[in-house]
Design brief:
10 strands; endopeptidase fold (from Nostoc punctiforme); globular; two-stranded parallel ribbon; six-stranded antiparallel beta sheet; alpha+beta; 5 helices
Amino acid sequence: MPEMINSRFSMAQRSHFFQTLVVTFVTLLPLVSWGQTLTVSSEPDSLRWSDIVQLYEGRLGERYQGGGKQPGGFDCSGLLYWIYGQMDQTLPASSRGYAHEGKLIARDSIRVGDFMLFSGRNASEIGHVGLCVGHDSTGIYMLHSATHSGVLIENWVGQAYYERRYLGARRLFYYRP
C-alpha cells in the first residue's frame, strides 16, 4: 500500500494530505479527549469553529511578514485579523490591542478558540498572539505566525521561549461546533 501512495501522488500532494491530517487531528483531539472543548452559545453572533478551521488550514505554511495582514504574508496579529475578518468580526490590528479584549482566562482553562498572549522584545508588553486550536495532556497547540517559520501550529507548552513570555489568555468569542 505505501508503494501505491508513493507512486500515485506527488510529494506536494502527500505533504498537503499529511498537513491536513495533522491539523484535523489537533483540532478534533480535544473534542474526543474532553467532550466539551467548544461552547455552544445561544448568542446570535457566535461563530462556527469549523469555518475558522477551514480558513486557517489554507494559510498554513505562508511566510511571515512584519505588519502583514493578508494572504501572502502575515504577522501574528495580522493572521488572526484576516481570519476573523473573513467572518465579519473585527479584531485588534496589533497584538497589544488584545490586552483588554474579551474575558481573561486562567491558563488551566484555555480551550479551543481562546487567544494566548505573549511578551515580545519588551517583557512587560504584549508582543505576540496565538489562537488555541487544540490541547491535550501534553500541551496547548496554537496557530500563529512566527518570524522563524511563518504560519504554523505548534505546542508551546514546555518551550522555554514561550513559557517565559506567556502573559495570559483571553476569550473573545463563543463557538458553535
